[in-house]
Amino acid sequence: MASSIRVRATSNGDITEVQALIQHPMDTGLVKNPNGELIPAHYIQQLKFEWNGKDVFVADWGTAVSKDPYVKFSFKGAKKGDEIKISWTDNKGASDTTTAKIA
Questions:
Q1: CA distance 103 to 101
Q2: Which helix or strand (DSSP H or E) is residue 21 part of?
Q3: CA quadruple 74, 76, 80, 83: dihedral positive or negative?
Q4: DSSP strand pairing (15-22 vs 44-51)
Q5: Beta bridge mates, 60
């Protein structure tokens, strides 16, 4: 199965910029389906980016994040060729993890 996470990390000097697109429904639990029934809440609870075993970005999310969230941030210290690990877990116990090399 393909990962739900697409990530791009580039280094420019001492600054590494990370961009990630995550496929997830991010249902709030407040929307009804065509039959008038509420669609249960289904959202990412924690998103984490790690570099060399250290957390460089951690987000605890709720239902206010849109479908297929996009994240962009930068940090210092990494260099080209280093690996960054991205993972998420949602409120139904699902999770996904991927890694990317910094270009």
A1: 6
A2: strand 15-22
A3: negative
A4: unpaired
A5: 46
E-state strands within 26-94: 44-51, 54-60, 70-76, 83-90
Express each pLDDT in 40-76 by its tens digit.
Answer: 999 999 999 999 999 999 999 999 999 999 999 999 9
DSSP tag of 8 = E
- Please give the Cα distance from 68 to 30 (Å, whole number): 17
What is the maximum span of the chain, computed from C-alpha positions, in angstroms?
Answer: 54
H/E run at residue 101: strand 95-101
Q: What is the value of pTM for the model shown?
A: 0.91
- Is 90 exceeded by the pLDDT of residue 2? no
d(CA 7, CA 50): 13
